[in-house]
Structure prediction request, 799 residues.
Amino acid sequence: MSNSFSLQDAARSGLVDVSSNASLTRFLHGLPGVDLVGLEARAAMLGTRSIKTTAKAEGIDLAIRMIDLTTLEGMDTRGKVRSLCAKARRPDPYDATVPSPAAICVYGDMVGHAKDALSGTSIKVAAVATAFPSGRASPRVKLMDVQDAVAQGADEIDMVIDRGAFHEGRYLDVLEEIIAVKAACGNAHLKVILETGELKTYDNIRRASWLGMLGGGDFIKTSTGKVSPAATAPVVLLMLQAIRDFHKSTGQIIGMKPAGGIRTTKDAMKMLVLVKETLGDRWLDPDLFRIGASALLNDLLMQRTKLRTGAYSGPDYVTVD
Amino acid sequence: MTFEYAPALESTSVVSLKDQYGLFINGEFVNAQAGEHFATLNPANEDHLANISQGSSHDIDVAVKAARKAFTTWSAMPGAERGKYLYRIARIIQDRSREIAVLETLDNGKPIRETRDVDIPLVAAHFFHYAGWADKLEYAGMGNNPQPLGVAGQIIPWNFPLLMLAWKIAPALAAGNTVVLKPAEETPLTALLFAEICQQADLPPGVVNIVTGDGSTGRALVEHPDVNKIAFTGSTEVGRLIAHAVAGTHKKVTLELGGKAANIVFDDAPIDQAIEGVVNGIFFNQGHVCCAGSRLLIQESVYDQFMELLYDRCNTLRLGNPLDKNTDVGAINSAAQLARITEIAATGDAEGAHRWTASCAIPEKGFWYPPTIFTDVSQANRIAREEIFGPVLSVLTFRTPEEAIEKANNSPFGLSAGIWTEKGSRILQVASQLRAGVIWANTFNKFDATSPFGGYKESGYGREGGRHGLEPYLKVGV
Prediction:
């Protein structure tokens, strides 16, 4: 899946003429429009799915395995990262059957500490890079940011696209930057953050999704978590539809990562429903669907205990990390 | 990983069914004169639900007399006072919405998600809307002092039982009329629950009368000499009989009949939302919708792409127990309707159309028909011309907007149509040339209490809903 993409690859796909910004613009603006009312109605309808008993139990464990357990604060310390890694190794001190989340997601300077703390496990370390969250730095600095995180051992890179360039209509610049970051990733998987809350319209989100996939992103991701709104149901649905269309056109399978605002088990179940009914069961896999979250894990653990014991233990029985 | 949804059944404990129901006349439940009954079934499993009284022409006469008597006081009551009763009814419907939704699903077979999220909220909305009109009739644009007609005879179908009751009763009462309503024999239970709600709201006796029965009961109501107005929703065939029966009398008539709506998808449509609109247009309520988008007209340049997505989407439809909160497609309402759907769909095969069926398991008991799509359909085929009233979509193609409009209008019906395009000017250009009473742009099967609904040609005449919906219940311009 970690195909190294170049502009030539994008061009060779035959889908899109990337010889100029004008031709790329024509392609992106030729994608089907998005009707806001209809998209939101469909997302709301899928939000009414009732997930009970066995489905809920299965969904909770699946959601735990899909989490990118995240801390992205200016005041992150080595101690905080170590504690989060310990949580990932053993999410519930009272129950060894709880699976681990897929990855820990940290700033670049914490990658080495996270790798140490997770050694011997299959839990990945993801680093945000490219002048996260704003993306406002020179291309040179952004690439160095990526290279540094990869050198420290990051398994996955979460980059942000240049929203300024996007709004200026410089789509080719956005695409070329993604391609360059992908090249800098080496074997690390690339997640392309669109920051949908700054793209504003659903049409923009569909176009940016295509840029992320054409540029070689292994995943496309909604948000940094620093901008609201973030991973709303309609946005996630729309990006899943873009992944479906890309798959139909190229045969390539791209992953999806909603992040930002997913805090409760109910939120997580809604995400799984969106995936199941848009892309199908194949995407119900931590290799293809991740949930970027911090508080979510504890709510999943409390609901998991409640399902198993019938009693709601409360927040004092899950660890605060 | 499969993440199969576990059963999520809505509880039926909120509903208390009686073994046997009487007629609701003059504020009370009474026995039918002849004492005859018929059964109403749960179409999802063929369980017997209750015995329903067969109203005779004598019972109709008693009900009309009660309505005539009540009319004197009801019509003289200040509009604001009538409004209070309607508001009260609307609030009780909201309070008891879960009970009503479950009962409707049991009797009709439609999914609980639809009764809960569509039917019952709309029922309350219609009563709220017309409650507001009751003291504002002078400002409805129908003359200085519009007067009620008298006794309205109302006959409603089985596809949206309580919603059709609301469409009929709310404007009639707001305008100062009294009513005798005959629910469909297949789905009388929510109308009888509504009778209880009228009692709960202290509605004066005789203002609303509900007489259950079959077609003969309906005929007695239509032919009763002291009825001032007939409002009918149902088949074009019965609509014709009613038009004949009232011809030459003083009775005002509104008829809301069949349809064969064109859902037109242009190549610049918002494709994913158009897919949803097409699915909702024909599979909502198992296609038991007079305004269903039963003809998909799709521009040839996007045909292949669109159909692939449409088949994929239809394979995700969840058919099964209507009480399961995750069910998308419920049961066909009756054995007779299932036979009719099966018969007309078979002509699609015989006339050379290509049948596609959604991959969903069919329950063993009850009346079921899987979501079905016919391609290679031509305008001459029966499945392109006749109303099937079931989950069967006929797909036709077009090359130009002119061709789409021509094909859409080439139907004896004219109830509704849909246009899918991101281009605003095309919406206006096409909509202005379609001969249909309701035209949706980038949506379908969207109903609102403030919006008029009704048809052209064989789809009937008169409008229900909104300000326009008052007109059939008023002596206009007096």
Observations:
- The two ends of chain B are 70 Å apart (CA to CA).
